[in-house]
Amino acid sequence: MPSLIVVVFALQAIIHIVNSVGAAAINEMLWALYSKFPTLTSKAAQEQIRLRREVVRLKRELGGVSAQDDFARWAKLRRQNDKAMADYEKHASSLTQTKATFDYRVGILRMFITTIPRWALQFWFARTAIYWVPKGWIPGYAEWLLSFPTAPRGSVSIHVWALACASVVSLIGEAVTAAIAIGLGSKAQGAEVEPEPAKAKKDL
């Protein structure tokens, strides 16, 4: 069984990644992945794309036909466009409801992966010492703070350890983000700078 110290740190890292990426972005990525599977939802999404292209095509053709010069063709295209638009809106409404249900279920799954395990660990191991602080290293009031709320005096509680892990993970995340931004900025700046053409040497 992995150490409780490692489990809490890993859980805080997962929570930080989820919060940094964002729930909406994660939902969109999972929805795009789910739509690639051979399911009814995938077929509905493909049908919606086909209908959207059909609507665009009919609108383009309808815009190129004059109702005064060729009323019969214009009326036929108009009926086809109205039917395609109605079908598209029907499929879009159904797909929107399906995606809303999908987002709701993903939100519940995300809560079971992050929030509930954190609460469960803090409740179950509330009286457990994550690790012990050597006696005499810190003042008595600091020992009480580190063991807050119900861990043995002189130890670090799971609540305090979780807060410490969250702070460290946040600092690491900011450092990594800054390093990536600096690296991309340097790369872009280097690409903009063009080397000067070499000057031809004069013959002596």
From TrEMBL:
Segments forming a coiled coil: none
Residues spanning the signal sequence: 1-20
Keywords, in A-Z order: Coiled coil, Endoplasmic reticulum, Membrane, Signal, Transmembrane, Transmembrane helix, Transport
Cellular component terms (Gene Ontology): endoplasmic reticulum membrane; GET complex
Gene Ontology BP annotations: tail-anchored membrane protein insertion into ER membrane
Molecular function GO terms recorded: protein-membrane adaptor activity
Subcellular location: Endoplasmic reticulum membrane
InterPro entries: Get1, Get1_fungi, Helix_hairpin_bin_sf
Cytoplasmic face of the membrane: 173-204
Pfam families to which the protein is assigned, alphabetical: CHD5 (PF04420)
Membrane-side (Lumenal) residue stretches: 1-4
Membrane-topology annotation of the record: Multi-pass membrane protein
PANTHER family per UniProt: GUIDED ENTRY OF TAIL-ANCHORED PROTEINS FACTOR 1, TAIL-ANCHORED PROTEIN INSERTION RECEPTOR WRB
Family classification: Belongs to the WRB/GET1 family.
Protein name (database record): Uncharacterized protein
Organism, scientific name: Trichodelitschia bisporula
Gene symbol of the encoding locus: GET1
